[in-house]
Specification:
The complex is a heterodimer of chains A (about 325) and B (about 250).
Chain A: E1 3-8, E2 10-11, E3 14-15, H1 17-29, E4 35-41, E5 57-61, H2 73-85, E6 89-93, H3 96-108, E7 112-115, E8 127-131, E9 136-142, E10 147-151, E11 167-171, E12 184-190, E13 202-206, H4 216-226, E14 229-232, H5 234-238, E15 259-263, H6 269-272, E16 280-285, E17 298-301, H7 304-321
Parallel strand pairs in A: 1-4, 1-6, 4-5, 5-11, 6-10, 7-10, 13-14, 13-15, 15-16, 16-17
Antiparallel strand pairs in A: 2-3, 8-9
Chain B: E1 2-7, E2 9-11, E3 18-20, E4 23-25, E5 31-33, H1 35-50, E6 55-60, H2 67-76, E7 80-85, H3 92-107, E8 114-118, H4 129-137, E9 140-145, E10 147-150, E11 155-161, E12 164-170, E13 174-178, H5 190-198, E14 202-205, E15 214-221, E16 229-230, H6 234-243
Parallel strand pairs in B: 1-6, 1-8, 6-7, 7-14, 8-13, 9-13
Antiparallel strand pairs in B: 2-5, 3-4, 10-11, 11-12
Helix pairs in contact in B: 2-5, 3-4
The structure holds flavin-adenine dinucleotide (FAD).
């Protein structure tokens, strides 16, 4: 019988959407006898946990994050909790904080860290994930009794619904005074875009073929229409047209949108490395031999300056008729 | 400041990696220093310049790491370069374990002021070693860091998160992982490479690490090829996307 601990990350006083998704995915996969427990640390608004449906208990540690670097205090708090409660698995979203916390926790417990598994189901014996820029699919077998799952965005067909609500408990344990050496987060300046591309359902991305920074306004217009995020190739980032936070690929972010529209992007292997989990790919490129067409589901050979405004208009028409 | 930098090698292009009979075949691969480790090493060299008397030691624990990697580190300017010699390492936990042991053997109880690593290695992209190393050395960990400033006592570091840019303040000792954009790694010329060849490559023998926490069970090649349906006009493309259900109203969605 499994006991899942879901790490819920606070964001702007709420539970991060990706963490709530993870919580509900675990709820869906519970077999009889399985248990689920949530853990949230730091300041959250009253009612922030109301988004969580299903069974189990959510512990709230009032001190700690986000003022403290998650690798340290939080890792200690969680590893003690996992041992005391006898959790068999820890599940968290693959956010910046999650990606730092998960390996630290794996070393502290120790536990088998399974990150970026292509199959979402938790109790499986192996974790399949892409390695070597997505050119190889590897199967990993966990060896430790406790597993840690770091989960990326997943395609969901229907949301989890339950009449049940988890029990709320204030986590009383004190970890003692912070050490002097503890790194402190001093400020957080809000990011420009409200949504992170690694969590986006639709992405409109531009590459060197966009020609210059100002033309990305065409992508922003299309993105607004579709409720999408704007992404970029490394060339576009290196040119200074877009921030690094929007870079997709091996040295940028891995994304998992339902729809990915690549505009003026050649389709280099390092770019495609970030697209392994994209469901549908559309390519707009003036070169009919651009490699991006080999990995695309839909393509149009043409100049982005001509195609994009017309495509945006046509999609606007389609939406108007709905 | 004593700075240890952990480096490894990765294939310069994933297209040379093949799968033969269910196993990885690396015979066609040319190896380069992991690009994120170049950021880490460059940052160490910049700190040494800012704080004269500092030393920078590069440690390589990946089994493939040959002389080239260590010589590259010396050519970039590392004071010393160590091969951490061990039995083949099977997962990030074992890698972090032998590195932690090597750091302890090299620096003793004092530990280095900073241990710098790359954000992740580009081959397996686990991004686990830096955080694991920090736990094993009982040090705080901050990463992936895209800006770093030091005044001799404290460090100011920046990292990008989903919520925005975080500015962190920390005191050494510390483990830091380097993100792209932290600096521009220096290029090494023939002269530096020739000089590096004269410097000794040192060996640190690792003890037998504990068993791995995850094991690679099998590999299969991936074909990303899809069948592309071409549209003649943007209007046709919009119609195709619509009829396949890819265009939806955004209102009403979460
Ligand atoms: C270690 C390493 C890591 C890397 N990591 C990444 C990464 O994370 N992400 C990434 O993206 N890249 C990465 N790269 C770089 C990658 O190899 C490519 O150089 C890069 O992806 C190319 O970007 P691009 O497609 O925008 O530009 P290009 O390759 O220059 O392609 C531009 C495309 O635009 C088309 N085009 C030009 N004009 C027009 C027009 N008017 N209308 C329509 N189409 C037009 C061209 O036909 C061409 O196909 C990495 C490389 C290395 C070595």
């Amino acid at each position: 019988m499994a006991h899942y601990l879901v790490f819920l990350e606070p964001r702007n006083g709420l539970v991060a959407g990706v963490s709530a998704d993870v919580w509900h995915r675990v709820q869906e996969q519970l077999s009889s006898g399985d248990r689920i427990t949530g853990f949230v640390a730091g300041a959250i608004s009253p009612g922030a946990l109301d988004v969580l449906q299903g069974s189990g208990t959510v512990y709230h540690a009032l001190s700690g994050s986000p003022a403290v670097s998650p690798g340290t205090v939080l890792c200690r708090m969680l590893s003690e909790f996992v041992r005391k409660e006898g959790c068999t698995a820890v599940v968290m979203a693959a956010t910046t904080a999650g990606k730092m916390l998960a390996p630290a926790l794996a070393a502290a417990l120790p536990a088998s860290l399974l990150a970026g598994c292509t199959s979402g189901s938790l109790p499986e014996k192996v974790c399949r994930r892409y390695i070597h820029s997505g050119s190889v699919l590897a199967a990993y077998r966990p060896e430790a009794a406790i597993r840690i799952f770091l989960q990326g965005r997943e395609h969901r067909s229907s949301p989890f619904r339950s009449m049940e609500r988890p029990r709320y408990v204030v986590f009383q344990e004190s970890l003692g005074p912070l050490q002097d050496a503890e790194p402190l987060i001093r400020t957080i300046s809000a990011s420009g875009s409200p949504e992170d591309i690694s969590e986006a359902g639709i992405i409109v991305a531009g590459g060197r073929g966009m020609g210059d920074a100002s033309r990305f306004s065409m992508l922003e217009e299309l993105a607004n229409l579709l409720g999408a995020c704007v992404g970029a190739s490394r060339s576009a980032v290196d040119e200074g047209w877009r921030p690094h936070s929007e870079q997709i690929g091996q040295t940028g972010k891995s994304v998992a949108p339902e729809l990915y529209i690549a505009c003026g992007i050649s389709g280099a292997v390092q770019h495609l490395a970030g697209l392994a989990s994209a469901r549908t790919i559309v390519a707009i490129n003036s070169d009919p031999y651009a490699p991006v067409f080999d990995v695309a589901d839909y393509g149009i050979v043409g100049d982005v300056r001509e195609v994009l405004p017309r495509l945006t208009d046509a999609i606007r028409d389609v939406l108007r008729k709905k | 400041m004593n700075i240890a930098v952990c480096i490894c090698q990765v294939p310069d292009s994933a297209s040379a990696v093949a799968v033969i009979d269910g196993a990885l075949d690396m015979t066609r691969v040319t190896w380069v220093m992991n690009p994120y480790d170049e950021f880490a090493l460059e940052e160490a060299l910049l700190l040494r310049k800012q704080f004269p008397g500092s030393t920078v030691s590069a440690l390589a624990a990946s089994p493939e790491s040959g002389k080239d990697l260590l010589q590259k580190a010396l050519a970039m300017g590392a004071d010393r370069a160590f091969e951490v010699r061990s039995s083949p390492l099977q997962d990030p936990f074992q890698t972090a374990w032998v590195l932690a042991e090597a750091v302890r053997n090299l620096y003793g109880k004092a530990l280095p002021d900073l241990v710098l690593c790359g954000r992740e290695s580009l081959d397996y992209q686990n991004a686990s070693v830096p955080a694991m190393l920090a736990v094993m050395l009982d040090l705080a960990f901050i990463g992936p860091v895209s800006a770093l400033g030091a005044d001799g006592e404290r460090l100011e570091l920046e990292r990008e998160t989903e919520g925005g840019t975080e500015l962190l303040v920390a005191r050494p000792p510390l483990v830091i992982s380097a993100e792209k954009g932290l600096n521009t790694p220096r290029k090494t010329g023939i002269r530096q490479v020739m000089e590096a060849r004269k410097k000794p490559l040192e060996i640190l023998q690792a003890s037998e690490p504990p068993p791995p926490l995850v094991c690679l069970e099998g590999v299969e090649p991936v074909s990303k090829k899809r069948r592309c349906r071409y549209a003649a006009t943007p209007e046709e493309l919009a119609a195709m996307l619509d009829s396949d259900g890819h265009i939806r109203q955004i209102s009403g969605e979460g």
